[in-house]
Structure formats: structure tokens, C-alpha cells
Amino acid sequence: MNFNWEARVKRVAMRTKALIATAILVTSVSAAWAQDGHSEKPCSSPEYSQFDFWVGDWQVTSPDGKPLGANRIAKILGGCAIQENWAGAGGSIGQSYNIYAKARGVWHQTWVDNSGSLLVLDGGIEDGRMVLRGETPARDGKGTVMHEISWTPMATGQVRQHWQISRDGGGEWSDAFVGIYSRKHD
């Protein structure tokens, strides 16, 4: 058997050069990131934690105790975003992605569900509660529907979610959903 040491040495040398080039690139990018004022971990400013009270595994009921569903809320992407996974008692399922949009100074949520609904909301902390607002086209195609959803941390450790809608430009509001979130017990 004839082993080609010269070819092996060339392959090892090429791999070593590639590793060195990668190390230099990573070091350069890290140094540039730090020089641009990015020395702290992305998404580590206090605003990214404003919605953390909603994170957890929840049973959701109406205010009178009727089961409405379950919701798993998790921090994802290194703490930069919050993912919601809803499973309604009636078979509805949906997900939302939430992020503090630092450049705009607002919280943003995009919600989609198995009925084909899309809801895009923006807002932030108001009086100790998270309040997000948005608009959707009316189902009949005439006008828009305004949405306001608030999440309020309660002294009991629960969270109250209140979703209101207005079909007349904010003159009259009605409840679309009121849920009390209670943490699931292991």
C-alpha cells in the first residue's frame, strides 16, 4: 500500500489555514461589534424583560372559572423574543411572536391561528400592564376593526388578559376575550 504523505500534509495545512482564517474572522467581527457599542449581550436591556411576567405554562379560564384553554409562553432566540403557543378548549390553536422593537421603542406581536387570522399589534407598558393595539380589515370588507389587548400581572401570580375590539373607530368597545392565566402545577 502506497500512502501519499505529501497529499495528507497539504490537506492538513489547508484545514489549518481555514481554521485560522475562521478564528481571525470571528475575532474581527467580535471586535467590530464591541467597537460599535455592542459590548453587552443582545437583548439584555431592561425593556426586553418587560413582558417576562407572561412567560410560563398556563391554564386559562374565564373570570368565572370556565376552562378556556392552555398557553405555553417561552423566551426564545437567546431571550430576544417571546413565543406563545395557544390551545383553546374548543379546538382553536395559535401562535404569536413578541419582541421589543428597540429601533422603534415599542413591543410588537404577530399572532396567527388555525382559522387563518393574522393580528399585528404594537404597544408597550402602560400603568404596569402590557397593552398592544392594532387594526384588521372587517370581515365584511367594510372598514376596520380596532384591537386592544392588555396583559395585567395580578398579586396572586396570575395574569389577566383582556382583548377588546371596536368596529366604529374607537367609539364603542366590546370584549372579544377575557382570560385569567394560572400557572400549571407540576
Descriptive key words:
alpha+beta; globular; 186 residues
Description:
By secondary structure, this protein is of the alpha+beta class. 17% of the residues lie in helices and 47% in strands. The protein is built from one helix and ten strands. It has one helix at 5-35, and strands spanning 56-61, 67-76, 81-88, 93-101, 106-113, 118-126, 129-137, 144-153, 159-166, 174-183. A hairpin with a 4-residue loop joins strand 5 and strand 6 (118-126). The longest helix has 31 residues, at 5-35. The protein starts with a helix and ends with a strand.
List the helices and strands and how they pair.
Elements: H1 5-35, E1 56-61, E2 67-76, E3 81-88, E4 93-101, E5 106-113, E6 118-126, E7 129-137, E8 144-153, E9 159-166, E10 174-183
Antiparallel strand pairs: 1-2, 1-10, 2-3, 3-4, 4-5, 5-6, 6-7, 7-8, 8-9, 9-10
